[in-house]
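Weekly sync, protein design subgroup
Attendees: M.S., D.O., the rotation student, P.L. (late)

Item 1: inverse folding check
M.S. brought a backbone from last month's batch and wanted to see whether the design step gives back something sensible before we order anything. D.O. pointed out we never logged the input encoding, so this time it goes straight into the notes. Structure tokens as presented (559 positions):
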């Protein structure tokens, strides 16, 4: 009976529904069909397709795990199958034997002298026969169910394998296309990269919150360029988004985070420790000071922050000491007194800042037994980047993350939740043209020209791309700069779409990473989607005056 009980338990377990839902496989099939069509499109947002394929692969991973578990179940079932077949034969033999007994008992019942006892015996024998019959049915159903499971399992393995092959095929094709895009982006010459850097430098963007002016944002100043409709590209944050976000630290302090909470949000370090405060820090062009006297002369954040965000000043003091010690190799070298290092003046700053310095006396962030080079800047635009992500050497004390209580799903989340959202440079269209009331707005045909330039650049050699610089300045290599009409003529010769006017634009954003992946435009020639980094580079080379995009995350506004 014990063996029979165990077998029946196994039968119950293995009769539990086993099949992968058909809608899951159909869903994956449909997703692959959609991504396949997008891959074939010349205007696809490949980063979006990359995300879709990632979702598909995750679904397939789950299904593969389910199939492996089912294979284990089937093997367990096969291990008891032989015994169950023997049990079936035995039960069948007993069943027919008991049927015979039951038939004899009917005759005995009719001829019995003790009718009550004979009835009890008859119904007992009938119960035994019924139980035998039920057991036989269960075993037969178990065997049938096991065979059906094996059949379904093989079908599912084939389906999942085929879907996985298709996903791998699309991933490979996607990698090749993204590689081609990256190659086109990387094809900028050293001269072009230098020109972009020089144009950025011409904006004189402050990296320090203490010297931060106001972004003359064309969304808030109310100035009219004198034309419409109009477009502008707005960047989130300022350059050097590595380490502590000063305005973000202020926002964190205002919601109750202490200095260590703030610093751990922006850096990876082992501990905050006290160090020798007698170390001499030599400041180029200013003087030599002990570590604490040096820190009292750092002018990096507004003193007024101490009134409602004092922890941000304490965090800045610890970061300033850490940076100075790491930069000078514990006083062996010197440090500059500008934003290229950290802003230092000959007179102590005093006020809330001096109180923050005193309350954190000698404290620095330590990683692997050494102070960390605690980079920081005024406004990150809602994100934190590691040093390797901005083209610097990779470090283990910098990190990547979203600078908010939670993640972002859209621009509204970013604008409402980022800790540095109060910064006057959080969201800005950089640059201006005096002839258009000192605004950075572009006309629909000017934006169309930048789109045409990007499309044309795909066909040109590095040498011919030298014709595509901004038209309101002298060509930096002495060549002819092609104007709007010449760019259109060249583009038509390659049989590509040519825009005379842009009517609308939209952005594809990776809100987890903090980067504009793509930008899409609609106009008189239809629509086109351009890689975000490629658009940023060519926009900065072609846009008039000093108008430019200054970071990885940007948005387009139309008015």
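Designed sequence read out in the meeting:
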């Amino acid at each position: 009976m014990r063996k029979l009980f165990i077998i029946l338990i196994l039968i119950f377990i293995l009769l539990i529904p086993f099949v992968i839902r058909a809608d899951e496989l159909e869903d994956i099939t449909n997703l692959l069909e959609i991504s396949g069509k997008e891959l074939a499109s010349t205007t696809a947002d490949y980063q979006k397709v990359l995300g879709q394929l990632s979702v598909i692969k995750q679904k397939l991973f789950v299904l593969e795990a389910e199939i492996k578990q089912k294979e284990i179940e089937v093997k367990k079932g096969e291990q008891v199958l032989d015994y169950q077949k023997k049990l079936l034969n035995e039960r069948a033999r007993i069943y027919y034997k008991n049927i015979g007994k039951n038939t004899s008992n009917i005759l005995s019942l009719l001829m019995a002298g003790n009718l009550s006892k004979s009835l009890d015996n008859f119904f007992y024998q009938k119960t035994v026969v019924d139980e035998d019959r039920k057991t036989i049915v269960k075993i037969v159903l178990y065997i049938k169910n096991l065979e059906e499971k094996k059949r379904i399992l093989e079908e599912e393995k084939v389906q999942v394998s085929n879907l996985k092959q298709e996903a791998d095929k699309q991933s490979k094709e996607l990698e090749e296309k993204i590689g081609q895009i990256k190659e086109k982006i990387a094809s900028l010459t050293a001269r072009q990269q230098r020109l972009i850097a020089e144009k950025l430098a011409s904006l004189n963007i402050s990296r320090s919150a203490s010297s931060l002016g106001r972004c003359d944002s064309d969304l808030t100043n109310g100035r009219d360029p004198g034309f419409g409709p109009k477009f502008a590209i707005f960047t989130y944050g300022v350059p050097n988004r590595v380490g502590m976000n000063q305005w973000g630290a202020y926002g964190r302090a205002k919601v109750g985070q202490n200095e260590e909470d703030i610093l751990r949000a922006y850096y990876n370090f082992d501990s905050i420790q006290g160090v020798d405060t007698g170390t001499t820090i030599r400041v180029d062009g200013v003087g030599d000071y002990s570590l604490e006297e040096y820190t009292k002369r750092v002018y990096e954040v507004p003193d007024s922050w101490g009134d409602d965000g004092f922890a941000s000043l304490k965090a800045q003091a610890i970061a300033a000491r850490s940076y100075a010690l790491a930069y000078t190799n514990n006083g062996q070298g010197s440090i500059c007194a500008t934003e290229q290092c950290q802003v230092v003046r000959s007179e102590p700053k005093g006020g809330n800042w001096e109180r923050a310095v005193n309350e954190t006396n000698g404290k620095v962030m330590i990683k692997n037994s050494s102070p960390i080079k605690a980079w920081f800047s005024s406004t990150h635009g809602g994100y934190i980047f590691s040093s390797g992500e901005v083209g610097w050497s990779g470090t283990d004390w910098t990190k990547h993350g979203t600078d908010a209580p939670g993640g972002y799903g859209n621009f509204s989340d970013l604008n409402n939740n980022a800790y540095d959202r109060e910064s006057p440079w959080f969201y800005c269209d950089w640059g201006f043209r005096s002839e258009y009331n000192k605004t950075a707005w572009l006309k629909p045909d000017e934006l169309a020209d930048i789109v045409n330039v990007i499309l044309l650049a795909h066909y040109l050699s590095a040498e011919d791309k030298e014709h595509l610089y901004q038209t309101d300045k002298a060509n930096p290599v002495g060549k002819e700069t092609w104007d709007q009409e010449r760019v259109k003529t060249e583009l038509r010769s390659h049989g590509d779409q040519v825009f005379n006017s842009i009517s609308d634009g939209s952005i594809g954003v990776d809100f987890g990473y903090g980067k504009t992946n793509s930008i899409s435009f609609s106009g008189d020639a239809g629509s086109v989607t351009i890689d975000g980094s490629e658009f940023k580079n060519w926009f900065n080379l072609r846009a008039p005056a000093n108008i430019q995009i200054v970071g990885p995350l940007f948005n387009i506004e139309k008015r």
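Discussion: Residues 2-186 form one domain. The two ends are 83 Å apart (CA to CA).
Action: P.L. to compare against the previous round before Friday.
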